[in-house]
């Protein structure tokens, strides 16, 4: 998995932003903390930026403004702090009823032709991204060597490949692995919409001759694209809210099960978690094992091609369960969506897992942003050391020794 192509002796930091719908607001809080830790006028501290699903939107937002990193973070923060569900998908009565009718007619009765349909209409998201993003900023950042590469991953429904579309320097070779492909391209709106198209919830997006959906589907190695693009250390911002082994020791037992039949939303929440969270956590665990093995073997004895050179990893993940936070804000959901999701049980506490991915409302998003900020600041010293912030002055120039 560790296939970094960075120049010898050069530290190249990769930023990994995972998927998770509205949960990605947490990432913005972490980025805001990093921006506050940077010196005034500092440039982008992440030469490699990789995102999946909603994380792809944050990743490309950063890349578009990489020449002015802190401003790019503030712009992301402003968008997420003022989010409303209707800016992401149709939440008005006509929109919800029309999309639900199309979904039922097409998926259950086979009517309506071959038009891609899903439970929700995500056309408002396309309009928002078209207004907020200037993709020419990526080319400018690459040209001025403030960005090595940015990548987003989408899943091809016909090829069954997790396809990483990347834009960066010309010396980065594409890669071909089992169900994982890297394709150089000029990123545009379609790549973001495809990467964020949660299966069955948002419609797939056609790129060239194939329809693509959320990149977290069958992405068995979420960290791998950053290593292919040259990163030799990675900052991973997760959205799981799962307790760490240390935290788990202090969490009290849940108690005996009550034998209640799970709701459709509860089942869906577990399926979404397995799509967006489990692969990332497994990949981090695998990387840590390879790092341990690599340190046991002297560098001159490393077998070629096995990728045993250690990769530094720093993970920042929610210190609180995000579904619990979503449950507190479930009344913010628009009335049309609340009625639509009541039947499957998404508006109940047990179905808050699904809600945590779909609740694009200010109260919920702002609490996640604040949580991300606090969690990042709790690791302030580790972040400063990991990113080498104490050695930076304006625009990333090395500090002069006295």
What fraction of the residues are assigned to beta strands by DSSP? Answer: 5-15%
Continuous helix count = 15
Q: Report Rg.
A: 21 Å
Total count of strands: 10
Percent helix range: 40-55%
How would you summarize this macromolecular structure in one to three sentences?
This protein has 402 residues and is an alpha/beta fold.
Give the secondary structure arrangement, pairings included.
Layout (H helix, E strand, L loop, with lengths): L12 E5 L7 H13 L10 E5 L1 H11 L4 H13 L11 H15 L15 H10 L3 H8 L5 E8 L5 E7 L6 E3 L2 E5 L4 H7 L9 E3 L2 E5 L9 H5 L4 E5 L7 H6 L13 H33 L15 E5 L5 H7 L6 H8 L9 H7 L3 H17 L1 H8 L15
Parallel strand pairs: 1-2, 1-9, 2-3, 4-6, 9-10
Antiparallel strand pairs: 3-4, 3-8, 5-6, 7-8
Helix pairs in contact: 1-3, 1-14, 2-3, 10-13, 11-13
Structure description:
This protein is an alpha/beta fold and about 400 residues long. Helix content is about 40%, strand content about 15%. It is built from 15 helices and 10 strands. Strands 1, 2, 3, 4, 5, 6, 7, 8, 9 and 10 form a 10-stranded mixed β-sheet that branches. A hairpin with a 5-residue loop joins β3 and β4. The protein starts with 12 loop residues before the first strand and ends in a 15-residue tail after the last helix. The N terminus and C terminus are likely disordered.
Fill in the keyword field for this structure.
42% helix, disordered C terminus, 402 residues
